[in-house]
Automatic annotation (TrEMBL):
Single GO MF annotation: identical protein binding
Record key words, sorted: Repeat, Ubl conjugation pathway, WD repeat
Protein name as it appears in the record: F-box domain-containing protein
Bias (Acidic residues) ranges: 522-535
Species in which this protein is naturally found: Kuraishia capsulata CBS 1993
Segments of this protein annotated with the region Disordered: 248-282, 522-552
């Protein structure tokens, strides 16, 4: 016969009022069963044939040939297959030790509660459990459905509370390790650290190198789209942590091909980047390292887990965000500091006192003072081999900063040299004579780029696009093609929301993340449309503009420009359109210098304040005051930045040695 739960009022009343009449609701055959709950733990065994319920149930129980055969777990030892998850459900899998232990504790509590009941009720309840335990899965479902229809609300509430804890599955342990690792790759740093504290198995998986290698790929030198965090690259810091042997001087990270090994820091000679983003040629030490024997290279090879690589960068980024730093001060100049640059070993500063000073970044020791200019040093840039300076005496000098020897001097500007930059064998300089000069060292030729109407205060080379960007006191920034020496775009003017003061600094950037832009106001759009209607350009000019747009679609070109001006603002420009997309306010006096990387902008101004801005949102994160003089120059690295003051002091803010 089919199982049909009784829902008459009399039966429900009996169930709700008392449990003493429980045996009256059971078939007489079940009441006479000799199975005991105290002697056996319910265990499901397979049966060969299905028989009908009804009058045959009592006979089957008496003869011991029932389809429902409860047996003791003491007498049955299940043979485990290679994959127990195919034979057992999750809760009854012998390999799931935590679930088995929890069940044993719960059954012990139930047994204690059962023993407090009269013997007759114990026997009845035990028989019900035994019958349910031996039933096939679909029979169990029918039994539970019937019981649920007869449960009162308090009983349903108790079931909900019990079931909510029982249905929790340790899926990380149950799933194959490959799937578990894939799931863990979706967690953030804090969640991974919490997961490692769950159990030994979870810790082993959460600390796996493949998981943290994925974390590093997702965060280092770029912002994660999910959590919004990005971590500094810190190549120079890793090089500093290598052994002091000569072959360890040049180090780069070689990610494992499979993604499952630790970070490899090998003695492979490659180009590094200094704090200004410039590629640096290999040094003499690098060449020594590359020519050393394989045995020597193997001896200095250093392998670190990706979790440690991520951890040290996470600490630095956290200090940046919270404004936790340690300050160092370098004193030695007798006049204002005008230019500054540093890497992992050297800090170089130029001053109005006509000298360039070279400092040890870590110890603060003054290593060397370079003298040779007849006027103040207004600009400098260096790599591992050479230092190039521009002075108020209208000359450009090239130095070997390891020996202090002046290698060559370039003369050609009619007035002071205010800015210099170089790439490979090409030097670019900006001067107070309103010109930009391009010096080709190998061919000994010099080209003058004319177009600015005031002092050229800053020049930058963008090697990938073979272009030059120049900023000027005429409130504009110009983009030059180095192959043709022609100006291909001008950034500035009222229509493009340009600067209204002298532009002091320009930085080309390639930004992949979406930037927060200023909202366009109605009158600006109207003004732009009026200006466009008033233009009387020829067809040749339009075709030239179309050609420029096609050139700027090249991915080698920078996507944005960053400029600072004495109008107290910092502006972000779209290179493709030539328009200013964001203006950052905060300084109350002119911004003399800015520096930027993938995540932030550092600005120094005449108001004696240094501000750190978020590059993506444009919000001011921190303001560093307490300076004794206006800030004339700043430089930025992965874990620190440096400022030069007009009273000759140099201050370094370190976020990694806290």
């Amino acid at each position: 016969m089919s199982f049909r739960p009784q829902t008459t009022p009399n039966v429900l009343q009996d169930v709700c009022d008392t449990s003493n009449d429980l045996h009256k609701l059971l078939p007489s055959a079940i009441a006479q069963s000799k199975a005991s709950f105290a002697e056996s733990t319910p265990t499901l065994v397979a049966v060969s044939k299905f028989q009908k319920h009804g009058d045959q149930t009592q006979q089957a129980l008496e003869e011991g040939s029932s389809i429902f055969a409860p047996t003791s777990s003491k007498n049955v030892t299940p043979s485990l297959s290679k994959n127990n998850y195919q034979k057992f459900c999750y809760r009854h899998n012998p390999e799931v030790k935590r679930t088995t232990r929890v069940d044993e504790d719960k059954m012990r509590q139930i047994q204690n509660s059962l023993e407090k009941l009269p013997i007759r009720e114990q026997e009845a309840i035990s028989n019900v459990w035994s019958l349910f335990s031996a039933a096939p899965s679909h029979h169990r479902t029918l039994m539970l459905q019937g019981l649920l229809t007869q449960c009162c609300f308090p009983q349903l509430s108790m079931l909900s509370e019990e079931v909510s804890s029982l249905i929790k599955i340790d899926f990380i342990t149950a799933l194959p390790s490959e799937l578990s690792l894939k799931i863990l790759c979706y967690l953030d740093c804090a969640s991974l650290c919490n997961a490692a504290q769950v159990s030994t198995k979870w810790k082993k998986l959460a600390d796996d190198d493949r998981v943290w290698h994925h974390m590093c790929e997702q965060h280092i030198d770029k912002k994660c789209p999910q959590c919004g965090w990005g971590l500094p690259l810190m190549l120079l810091k890793r090089a500093r942590e290598m052994p002091t042997a000569p072959s360890a001087a040049a180090t780069v990270v070689t990610p494992p091909a499979s993604g499952s090994e630790a970070e490899q820091e090998t003695t492979v000679t490659k180009k590094r980047k200094n704090n200004s983003g410039k590629a640096e040629p290999a040094t003499d030490i690098d060449m020594v390292a590359s020519s050393s024997s394989n045995s020597q290279q193997q001896a200095v090879r250093k392998t670190r887990p990706w979790k440690i690589v991520y951890s040290e960068r996470y600490k630095v980024e956290r200090n940046w965000r919270k404004g936790i730093y340690k300050a160092k001060e370098f004193q030695g100049h007798e006049d204002g500091v005008t230019c500054i640059q540093f890497d992992d070993q050297f800090l170089m500063t130029g001053s109005y006192d006509k000298t360039v000073k070279i400092w040890n970044v870590n110890t603060g020791e003054l290593l060397r003072t370079l003298e040779g200019h007849n006027g103040g040093i207004k600009a400098l840039v260096f790599d591992d081999q050479k230092l190039i300076t521009g002075g108020l005496d209208s000359t450009i000098k090239v130095w070997n900063h390891h020996t202090g020897q002046c290698i060559s001097t370039y003369r050609g500007h009619a007035e002071s040299v205010l800015s210099v930059d170089f790439h490979n064998k090409t030097i670019v300089s900006g001067s107070a004579d309103h010109t930009v000069k391009v010096w080709h060292v190998e061919t000994r030729t010099c080209y003058s780029l004319r177009g600015h109407t005031e002092w050229v205060t800053c020049v930058k080379i963008h090697p990938k696009s073979n272009t030059i960007f120049s900023a000027s006191d005429d409130s504009t920034v110009r983009m030059w093609d180095m192959s043709t020496n022609q100006c291909i775009r001008i950034f500035g003017g009222f229509k493009d929301n340009g600067h209204i003061g002298q532009v002091q600094c320009v930085i080309p950037l390639t930004i992949k993340d979406a930037l927060v832009e200023d909202e366009k106001e109605g009158f600006e759009e109207d003004t732009a449309s009026i200006s466009e209607d008033a233009e009387t350009g020829t067809n040749d000019e339009n075709s030239e503009e179309d050609l420029n747009n096609k050139i700027l679609d090249d991915p080698n070109y920078p996507t944005h420009l960053l400029t600072s001006s004495l109008d107290n603002t910092i502006k972000v420009w779209d290179v493709k359109t030539g328009k200013c997309i964001r203006t950052q306010f905060g300084h109350i006096e002119g911004v003399w210098s800015i520096a930027a990387d993938t995540f932030r902008i550092v600005s120094g101004a005449h108001d004696r304040l240094i501000k750190v801005w978020d590059l993506q949102s444009g919000k001011c994160m921190h303001t560093f005051g307490g300076n004794s003089a206006p800030i004339s120059c700043v430089a930025l690295g992965d874990s620190r930045f440096v400022s030069g003051l007009e009273n000759g002091r140099v201050k370094m803010y370190c976020f990694d040695d806290v």
